[in-house]
Backbone:
């Protein structure tokens, strides 16, 4: 497998490996704009030269859009290998590239979000354990922070208090989201429209800066849905899923 590093210079001509092939789709344009603004902060987006879901996205933890304390670490936003690419060792290739790059840049280690049992859009805990990661912190909602230190003396990363105890004061459904996930550009407006049509209290909070993300009341900032103050899920909602959730 050959890989290519997406940069400011080539991003407009590159497929960004998610489930959307049309570069003119609002989901693709929103994600590419988000990526472009992160490259100067050290973000790396490495992908297969073939079209499909086979890529890794990582950034120095100080610039991660998550409320974590992990100075000196590299943070993996997303490691995604699926479909026909699974089972060929490509996840190992991409992870090893991140590890090697992190060591070259003097990082203490790498960290990533996961959970005790596999959840949508989070790293597989079994895979991480197999690769030597251990859980260094866990939020009240079961979201875990796993890390792979490069030395035994490296300090453990941790969640900030705002993320460790996810809770908000607002009533009804409240969604925190970013443009890091391309699907939000399409599906957040759909859920907003559906909620309005069915008189369901719903409010979307678009996280648009690193500072806002690093102080969010949730470990997962790409998509975090609350109801009456309590965290519900990081699973993406379409109109059908949302109505089914609201009917419970």
Residues:
């Amino acid at each position: 497998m050959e890989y290519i590093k997406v940069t400011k210079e080539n991003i407009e001509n590159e497929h960004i490996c998610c489930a959307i092939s049309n570069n003119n789709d609002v989901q693709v344009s929103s994600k590419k704009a988000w990526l472009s603004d992160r490259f100067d902060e050290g973000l790396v987006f490495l992908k297969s030269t073939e079209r499909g879901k086979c890529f890794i996205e990582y950034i120095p933890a100080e610039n991660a859009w998550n409320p974590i304390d992990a100075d000196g670490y590299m943070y993996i936003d997303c490691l995604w290998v699926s479909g026909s690419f699974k089972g060929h060792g490509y996840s190992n290739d991409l992870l090893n590239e991140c590890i090697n790059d992190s060591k070259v840049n003097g990082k203490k280690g790498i960290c990533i979000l996961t959970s005790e049992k596999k959840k949508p859009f989070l790293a597989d805990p079994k895979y991480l354990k197999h690769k030597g990661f251990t859980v260094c912190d866990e939020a009240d909602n079961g979201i875990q922070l796993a890390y792979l230190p490069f030395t035994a003396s490296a300090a453990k990363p941790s969640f900030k208090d705002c993320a460790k105890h996810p809770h908000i004061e607002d009533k009804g459904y409240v969604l925190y989201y970013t443009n890091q996930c391309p699907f939000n550009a399409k599906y957040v407006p759909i859920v907003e429209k559906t909620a309005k049509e069915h008189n369901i209290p719903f409010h979307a909070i678009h996280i648009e800066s690193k500072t806002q993300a690093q102080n969010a009341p949730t470990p997962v900032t790409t998509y975090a849905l609350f109801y009456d103050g309590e965290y519900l899920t990081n699973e993406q909602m379409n109109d059908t899923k949302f109505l089914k959730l609201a009917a419970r």
Summary: The mean pLDDT is 94. The domain at 3-160 is CATH 3.40.630.30 (Aminopeptidase). The first strand starts at residue 3 and ends at 6. The CA atoms of residues 114 and 123 lie 5 Å apart.
